[in-house]
Amino acid sequence: MTEEIVGIMTRISQGYLFLKRNLDDFEGGKFNCPAGHIEKGETAIEAALRELKEEAGIVAAPSELIYVDTFSDEIKGIDFRVRLFAYANDRLDLSDIKLLPQEHCDKIAIGADAVENIALVRTDRPTLVFTKIDYRVMATYLRPIERLLYESKNRAADARRSAAASKNAA
């Protein structure tokens, strides 16, 4: 049976947000982006919004999430189907993140260049350990996510300028 999950690469003011899983949890002691199961009757976007709120205390609107891709992976004999989203809020910083203590014990924010280096240079004795799926996301999707977030920010700025110009012309 395949586990249906969502992952949300979340960029805040200091970089990409990663949460450290509790030691007694699946993949305990490893960092991952906010993520979780899609519950019965829930859409992927509803699950992503719920997981952001539960795991990090972030309340986002559906329009703020950007769909990135769907892919499959396996960890410890369990098959996962991952629906990956991106979210950016440069007004948030690490102190705004509220952990779900039943699942996570620490939080970090890492800049895009450092995330890319972590994905490329996996060592036998890393200081930070990430889940297999998160290494894959960092290696495969970081640059496309950066591009999508940049384009989204520009579209929003263009829409604001257009609305202001229309208002001023009236």
UniProtKB/TrEMBL annotation:
Q: Which residue ranges does the record assign to the Nudix hydrolase domain? A: 1-146
Pfam families given in the database record: NUDIX (PF00293)
| SUPFAM superfamilies found in the cross-reference section | Nudix
Q: Name one GO molecular function term.
A: hydrolase activity
| Superkingdom as given in the UniProt entry | Archaea
Keyword Hydrolase set for record: yes
Q: Which Gene3D superfamilies match?
A: Nucleoside Triphosphate Pyrophosphohydrolase
Q: What's in the keyword line of the UniProt record?
A: Hydrolase
UniProt cross-references to PANTHER family, sorted A to Z: ADP-RIBOSE PYROPHOSPHATASE, NUDIX HYDROLASE DOMAIN-CONTAINING PROTEIN
Q: What is the name of the protein in this document? A: NUDIX hydrolase
Please name the source species: Candidatus Micrarchaeum acidiphilum ARMAN-2
